[in-house]
Every structure is written in structure tokens, then in C-alpha cells.
Amino acid sequence: MNLEQQITAMAKSAQKAARQLVSVSTTEKNKALKLMAKALLFHQGFLISENKKDLTAAAHGQSYSKALIERLTMREETIKEMAQCLLDTAKLKDPVGELMDSFKRPNGLLIQKIRVPIGVVAIVYESRPNVTSDAIGLCLKSSNAAILKGGREALYSNGAIFKILRDELSKTEIPIDAIQLLPSDDHRAFGFLLKLQKYVDVVIPRGGEELIRFVTENTRIPVIKHYQGICHTYVSEHADLNMAHKICMNAKVQKPGVCNAMETMLVAKDAALRFLPVIVEDMQKAGVEIRGCRLTRTIVKKPIKAASEKDWDTEYLDLILSVKVVHSLEEAIDHINTHGSHHSDCIVTEDKKEAKQFLQSVDSACLYVNASTRFTDGHQFGFGAEIGISTDKLHARGPMALNELTTYKYLVFGKGQVRQ
Amino acid sequence: MNLEQQITAMAKSAQKAARQLVSVSTTEKNKALKLMAKALLFHQGFLISENKKDLTAAAHGQSYSKALIERLTMREETIKEMAQCLLDTAKLKDPVGELMDSFKRPNGLLIQKIRVPIGVVAIVYESRPNVTSDAIGLCLKSSNAAILKGGREALYSNGAIFKILRDELSKTEIPIDAIQLLPSDDHRAFGFLLKLQKYVDVVIPRGGEELIRFVTENTRIPVIKHYQGICHTYVSEHADLNMAHKICMNAKVQKPGVCNAMETMLVAKDAALRFLPVIVEDMQKAGVEIRGCRLTRTIVKKPIKAASEKDWDTEYLDLILSVKVVHSLEEAIDHINTHGSHHSDCIVTEDKKEAKQFLQSVDSACLYVNASTRFTDGHQFGFGAEIGISTDKLHARGPMALNELTTYKYLVFGKGQVRQ
Q1: Residue A231: beta bridge partners?
Q2: pLDDT of A192-239, one tens digit each?
Q3: Ramachandran area for residue B406 (φ above 0: left; ψ -120 to 50: alpha; else beta)
Q4: Which of B347, B363, B366, B377 should one mutate to test binding to chain A, selecting the residue with the greatest count of A CBs within 10 A?
Q5: Domain spanning A231-375: CATH superfamily
Q6: Nearest residue in A to B248, CA atom
Q7: Domain B3-227+392-412 falls in which CATH fold?
């Protein structure tokens, strides 16, 4: 078998497994998740030594960033968290089979709308090896087969996690082909997978522009993009400025490397004089580089970098903040709709009417009034888990967890009804 | 402006209009729909004379099928129905703003999940000019901007309908750019539109393999496919055979040219001797050409055409039926999952356990027990309208109406909460 045939066989067997998975009981799925959690802890030594191979390669090979190496590193703690995530997933309500709607038609037909798994879910991600077990757990709990593609930099780590989890499946009624790991040492493998719309129901790419573009340009399979977060906080002239200060500091500084961190702060002109000098000083103390618009730089009265047009469209994922003074709520809304990534945006205001207009007019997955955008997260939303944050509008928007890994079908019960 | 710039400007203005549409009241949207209905009736003469131009071109030009010309023809009755569809849409509940879910988190955050329009919806369709006004009505009622692309064969008809509807918009608060009609006399226009993922939120192609393939291969915009219906009816050995006879005849004969008509009849071996000879005779009397598997041909004992492998994958949309005798429920399920189009499939049985297995294992949008597949239709389901039947699994599956033209966003209300 050449590589293309191998990938096709993989996807085909995943589809077959997915169709069997539909009938596997919740108890059996939970049993599998618990076995997997136990196995990860048991094989901790093996996992850490395989992870070392990736870390060594990263250290010797191309110049990986410190942040990437941190995300790649597996410690005892990481493995405990992975096991815990599987146990938490076992505790979540099984979404499959949920009666979403039910209605009777005048002709006597009973129509039920039932939640069902999507089928075969392909997930593409980078660096963090824990995604391998988290995603497998969520897919299995929702009766989906999973085809995973991790990054080349996590080749050994992902391979080790996958092998351990797959071995456990053989002790359950879940077919082992329900989980598949794409070879990540041959980039052609992914290209072949993207051609298999006959077997794969959805591709979920989690990553940057290059990955998202590659996927959407090379597949006919539906895609749910987990793209960047260019998140804004708009501080209105009707804001409680102490609250605004606290929210902005948190949204920028608490964990700058994630998609729900603030990248651009918009400040109403009538609040700018009171608000900007203080927050800029505190941001700078916290190590944040400020890039301001012309008015910001005038008001702050100390040398800060000028924001270029490109800054408004940039996800820094770092201690950098672009700041713009706007003349109206409308200008703020327009700026966010034009430059944002439709992820998470916040207004700080005490004016309900203004808040309402912001919530209605900004076209983003998650909109906040008086709270940090950092809360956009499946766990924080109470979903108990997350496969990621969808920046798409179709099927799933914002935090994606078990329900978002399902679709539905209509069951129609008759007594011989025919159409007139 | 060249054509590409013209299409870009069109999509851009549609997006701008969509963002304004979010704030237009239900009353105002209904007013527009009623004005449009009235205008269609008022301009009946103009519509029929423009439609004549298309019919003349069709008669003189390429060899169009009788069925296509029938679908293309606009009569007084057609126009009345179009107007009625707009009035019916006005009566439907406005989906925008519906509170889909609401929950409070331990930290005090209130999270609301709110139904919102998708944004800019592109709909691509063929021949039937009534789709132009039906789709515009549904999109406007759900606060979406609509970009339509009809077939070249309906150039004058679609242009006339569009002009009448757009003129009415200028009497309302809805921006006229909320509806757009792509030039259908230059095929490049559609190609340009498919590149505009920045402005267009979804493409809904309603049509055959060639159209669906062209769209999915040429766009990064999410697509909801309205593809073919290869619908099956499986007659079990536990069926009430009189009921099965009635259901199969209806599913094949009542309106063979539509996507929810039966294309393949599967018959359990133990029912075949009793069931097949009678139904085949009655199908033939009704003008249906039968294409049977080897066993079917042996059992029926009169000359019928042999089904080829290709028949199992064919949507005839005509008075043709492929017939296969299967040895088990599992074989029936497997045949449908392999050869069907995941649209609508039926089992006729009195055995509840068997029905349950069929409903669980067949991977289609609509599954029937003891009723004709012809009921897969937004109106028949009680949705009051339909934009079409989605054969995709993501976002919308089966009949698509107002709710399926929406997505959601999360509104998070805080009092200064920040992430720990």
C-alpha cells in the first residue's frame, strides 16, 4: 500500500467504526475513558521519555520559540491533567440520542429531532500533546470517530499517547479504528486526507492563517475553523473606569498567549483623558508594549510607539497592545467588525442602551458587558470541556464542546401515511 | 469597474446591509414582505412577458428537457403562489433574537445564547424562478442579506422578479442592498463571488453533482449542500404488505421528479415472493420502468431490465425504480449507507426492534417508519416554508427553513469579573 491508499484505508475504517460507535452504550464509552485515564498515569515514564525525544529534536533542530517548547513539554503534572480531563469527560452527560424536538403533524405523523454524532471528525492541531487525549476523549464520548493530526514537532509525544489510548480501546466494545493518528512525518498524508470527503464529515483546524488557508483551499469536506482571536475591549465614556482598568489589565496581562486575550483597546474620546494615562502606565509596568493611535499618543504625553494600520489586524499573542481613541460607539462597533476576528469582544459601560446596541451590532461569537474576554472557554462557560473555540458562524460558534460535536436527524413515525 | 470589482462591491454592500438588517424590527420586515407580495401580483403582466423571453430562448436554443421548460414557465397561478409564499413568510415567527439558552456561572456571569442571522447568504439555483422570491422572503425575514444566482435559462424571469422586489424595499427601512442578483449571463461572476469569503458567510447550492462540485472546489466560504436524493424504502418481512404497497407506490409515482421520491426499493427475501410480483406489476401499470437485481428478476418471472451497479447510485428523478432483494436488515442498512445520499429513507415494518435498529444505524437526514419519503419538505414538516433540503450534516440537515438560516452568539453580562 502506498501512502495515499494507507490514508484512504484509515479513513474508511474510521467511518466503519463511527457507524458501530452509534450503538455503543454510555456506560461502555465511560469505561473506555476511565481505562484510558488510568493507562496514561501508568505509562507516565514512557510518555515523558518519548516527549524528551521531541524536546531534544526541538532544541537541536529549527529555532523553535520558547513559548512553543513550553507548550510541547510534558511533565508529571501535564499527564495528570490529561488523565483528569478524560475522567471529567466521562462524567459529562452523553449528548447522543437526546430528543431535541418532537411534534405531531395534522396527518398523524410524529416527527422527532434527535441528536446524533457527526461521524468522522478530523482534528488538526499544533504543539500541545494534551490535545491528542482531550480530543479523543470528547470525540468518543459523543460517539464520533476521530482522525488526529498533530504537529511534526510532537511526533513522538503524540505517537506515545495515541498508542496507549488505542491499546485500552481493545479492552472495550469500541472498535480500535474509532481513533486514528495521521503520520505527521510525511506532510503528504494530510493532503490525502483532505481529499476524502466520502469518509470524513468535518475537519477542525486549530491554528494560524497558514494552516486555515491550506485546509480551506484543499478540501471539499466541511471545515469548522478555530482561527485567531483579535479581541477588543471598548471603554465607553459611561464606563466605571476602575472596573474598566481591572478588566483591561486582566484581558491583556493574565495570559497573553491565548486567543481570548485582548489585542486592541478602544477608548471613547470622552473617557480617554481620565483613563488612558493611568492604564498605559500600568500596562507598561506589567511589561506591555503599547502601540497607540495619534490621539492616544497625544493624550498619554510620553513616548509610545505609533500603531500602524497593520496593528489593528494583528493577533499578537504577546505582551503588546494596540490602543485607539474612538469618537463614538458606532466607530467602536465599526472598528471591531472590520478588524476583529469575530471571536470575543467587550464593552465596559454602565449605560444599558449603549450595551444593547453593542451586543446587537458587533458580529462576534462572544460579546461581553463589563467582564474580561478571557472567559471565552468551554470550561469557563460550564461546558465541562472544549475541543476549541470556533471562529466560524456555521454549525458551532465560540466554545465547542460535546453538543457541538453532534448533529441531528429527523425520525418520522407513521401508520402508512402517503403524500396527497 | 470591471466585473470582479462589480461583484466585490455587490458583496460588500450586501454585508453592510446585513449589519443594518440586524436592527430592523419584525413589523418592518413583515411590511416589506407584504409590499413585495402585492407588487408581484400588480406586475403580473410584466412578469409573464419577461418569462416569455426565457421560454422563447429555451424553445429556440439548446435542447432543454420538457421537465425544465415546465419548471421555467410562469403562469398567473405561479405568481399567485409566489405572492402567497411571501405572505406566509410574513406570518412566521421571527427567529432573530430568540433566547436559546441562558445560564448563570458560579462567578456571577450571566451567559445568554441568542439566535442571530447568519449575515450574507448566497443561494445558487436552477430554472424555477419562484425560488428568487421565496429565498428573498426567507432571508429577509431572518434578517439575512441575500445574494442570488439563478440559471442562465431564467435570466429575464429572475431579473424581473428581482427588480419588482427591490423597488419595494425602497419604501421600507430595509436597505435595498440587502438583496442582490448576480448577473447570470456571465459565468465568471459566480466564480468571483466564490472568492469573497470576507463578505459572504455561506453558499447554498441547490443542484446536481456538477454545481455542487464546482462550488466546493472553488470556495473557502462554508457551503451547505442541497444535493441529490437517492431515497430508499426497505420492505421488511415484518411489514404490513398492503401498507408497504401503498407507501412504495406513493414514494415513486406521486411526483417522481423531486428529491424526496424513492429511487431504490429494497425488499427482504422473506417478503419478496409475496410482495414483488404484485408491486412490480402495479408499478409497470403506472408507467414505471423497473431495474431489478438477479433475485428480483427470478421472482417476478417476467422480463424486466437488469439493474447495473451504477443503478444503485443513481437519482433518476423519473419513472424508473431500481429493486433489490436483501437477505437481512443489516444488508439493507449497509446498502443505504453505501449507495444512498443521506437524504430520506424508509423502513416498512411492524417490528419495533427492527425499526429502532434502522433508525439508529442509517445515517440520513430523515428516516421514516411506515410513511412515504415524500414528506421530507419544510411545509410538510410544519416549518411553514423551506429554502431547500440540506444533504449536509453540519449546521442544517434535512428541510431548511427560518431557524436554519440563523446562527447564534453568546452574550456575557458581568459586573467587573476577571479571570483568576
Answers
A1: A262
A2: 999 999 999 999 998 888 898 899 999 999 999 998 999 999 999 999
A3: beta
A4: B363
A5: Aldehyde Dehydrogenase; Chain A, domain 2 (3.40.309.10)
A6: A418
A7: Aldehyde Dehydrogenase; Chain A, domain 1 (3.40.605)
